[in-house]
Amino acid sequence: MGKYSLVITLGVMSVVSLIALQGQRMATDTQDRQSRREGQVIARQIARSGYNAVLSEARAVTDPDDDVSSIVSDVGTIKGSYEGGNYRAWLEKISPTAYKAVSEGKKIVADRVVKHKLGDNYADNNMVKVPTVDEPTILRAEFEQSMAGYCSAIYLQRIQPDTKPKNQPEPEMVFPPGNNRNGASATFEKVIQPGTKLNFILAVDADYHCEERGDTTVTVDSDFYEYTRESFSQDESDFEEMKEKPYTMIEETSAGYRVAFEDLIFEEKQLWDIKQNGYPESTNWNSKKETYGGDGWDKNDDGLRDLEDYGSLPDFSDQVLQTTLESPTEDEAEDGEVADG
């Protein structure tokens, strides 16, 4: 019996030791996972600190006349420390008028490097230089290209300074519904006052019938349109914060702005990829890398992005406006209105 008792005792001790070892490992694993989770939270806070720092620097160095490339270059890369870790933050140009902030936070936890990155979401994180007039202005517009078969209209929303979004003027028509209008021109009927931001809107009737063709009474929210494409959106809680929308690309010219719309439906990440990287050699979308593979934009003789018709990918050549901003004549300034051009 003594030998059997010894065997049983040793077996029990082995089981107890094994359970204790497993418990110790589980406790260690739990502690390690908890440390990593805490590290991820801290790394995210560090990245947010860098994100805010680079935006503050952008606001500090920005001049009203600076273009986006100059802003990105002047800010450069910002480095700093926070909560026992460090960050690296910078700006990236994503269109002629917009840029985004990117920040990487890093924290060493239990001999492991924990990282977090902010700024990959173009839609939520972009900053934009909104077209703004600095003196009483008359807006004239002409279609440089209008090649798409879809019926559409162009509206202008005047975003006035020191005015809440709910009190802003409703979008007003510049071009009534139509299609294939190369060379067609119009003049916005009101004198635009200083400090007003210009939000160009494409309203699309996604068929080829265009039942309301030429009707100047159709409002931008009419059921006639399947969807609208705004150039920018205004934050309801922060009236000064504007975000560039994905379906429009605006470039400043010596006389005003060129406004290019994509009127077909694509994923937003596909639109942002083209806006940032230009047209690819192939039209195949790389879903893993989330890019068409463009390596930069070719420029036309005017130094603007050379827009072409690709059809099966976002090309921003469907509806392209050349706008000019002019000082009103004495009669126009007095009346505050002009006739259609």
* pLDDT < 50 stretches: none
Radius of gyration: 28 Å
Main pleated-sheet profile: 5 strands, antiparallel
Number of helices: 5
What's the structural domain tally?
2
Instruction: Count the E strands.
Output: 16
Shape descriptor: globular
What is the CA-CA span between the terminal residues? Answer: 113 Å
Q: What kind of oligomer do you see?
A: single chain
Give structural attributes:
341 residues; 5 helices; five-stranded antiparallel sheet; 2 domains; 16 strands; alpha+beta
What does it look like?
This protein has helices at about 1-60, 70-75, 120-125, 270-275, 330-335; strands spanning about 75-80, 85-95, 100-110, 110-120, 125-130, 140-145, 150-160, 170-180, 185, 195-205, 225-230, 230-235, 240-245, 250, 255-260, 320-325. It is an alpha+beta fold and about 350 residues long. A hairpin with a 4-residue loop joins strand 2 and strand 3. The radius of gyration is 28 Å and the shape is globular. The protein is about 25% helix and about 30% strand. Helix 1 (about 1-60) packs across helix 2 (about 70-75). The longest helix is centred in the first third of the chain and has 60 residues, at about 1-60. It is built from five helices and 16 strands. The chain folds into two domains: about 1-125, no CATH class; about 130-265 and about 320-335, no CATH class.
Task: Write a brief structural summary.
This protein has 341 residues and is α+β, with helices and mostly antiparallel strands.
